[in-house]
């Protein structure tokens, strides 16, 4: 862009200087805008790019392998069974993240089971979606996470089933392969022993 000066003497020199200055300013502004877009993309990617950010920049959303497995509208199920020989098992569960059902409470008699279905409302933050339950039996209390959307191997694609016995907490995926695995003891310890072949 050139600015024409009314005085013909030195008109070309002023025109060249002004054109160079304007080009320099335009290039500087372009670099600022370009840098801002790159900064926004870096922030979006590091924080887990949302669908809206992906749409704005015309990109496909970036997801990790766990997030791809969770879809809005998928129904997940948690089952809890009392394999205790005596005494009531009190269960109080609380959800964290974007799970539709927040609180679940139930009192189980020996040999009884209960369960509930739920959905995740925001699959982008699946690593924040989990259920933590408090188990209370004969004066013993244990808190543990019974479903964690951010961890593989916790029945993301099927029903999660927990059996509570006198010696601890057993886990398996309903409909999947594998046996019951003892995951926790009543003392709060993590059990690393072999799987249990028989169902409880």
UniProtKB/TrEMBL annotation:
<keyword id="KW-0713">Self-incompatibility</keyword>
<dbReference type="InterPro" id="IPR010264">
    <property type="entry name" value="Self-incomp_S1"/>
</dbReference>
<comment type="similarity">
    <text>Belongs to the plant self-incompatibility (S1) protein family.</text>
</comment>
<dbReference type="GO" id="GO:0005576">
    <property type="term" value="C:extracellular region"/>
</dbReference>
<dbReference type="GO" id="GO:0060320">
    <property type="term" value="P:rejection of self pollen"/>
</dbReference>
<dbReference type="Pfam" id="PF05938">
    <property type="entry name" value="Self-incomp_S1"/>
</dbReference>
<keyword id="KW-0964">Secreted</keyword>
<protein>
    <recommendedName>
        <fullName>S-protein homolog</fullName>
    </recommendedName>
</protein>
<keyword id="KW-0732">Signal</keyword>
């Amino acid at each position: 862009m050139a600015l024409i000066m009314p005085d013909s003497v030195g008109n070309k020199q002023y025109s060249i200087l002004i054109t160079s200055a304007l080009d320099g300013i335009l290039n500087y502004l372009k670099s600022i805008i370009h840098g801002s877009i790159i900064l926004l993309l870096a922030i979006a990617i590091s924080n887990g790019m949302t669908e809206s950010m992906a749409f704005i920049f015309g990109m496909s959303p970036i997801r990790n392998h766990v997030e791809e497995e969770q879809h809005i509208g998928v129904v997940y199920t948690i089952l809890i069974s009392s394999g205790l020989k005596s005494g009531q098992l009190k269960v109080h569960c609380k959800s964290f993240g974007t799970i539709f059902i927040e609180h679940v409470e139930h009192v189980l008699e020996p040999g009884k089971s209960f369960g509930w279905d739920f959905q995740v409302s925001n699959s982008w933050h699946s690593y924040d979606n989990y259920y933590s339950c408090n188990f209370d039996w004969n004066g013993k209390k244990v808190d543990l996470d019974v479903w964690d959307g951010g961890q593989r191997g916790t029945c993301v694609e099927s029903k999660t089933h927990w059996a509570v016995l006198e010696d601890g907490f057993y886990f398996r995926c309903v409909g999947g392969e594998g046996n019951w695995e003892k995951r926790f003891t009543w003392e709060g310890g993590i059990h690393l022993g072999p799987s249990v072949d028989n169902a409880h």
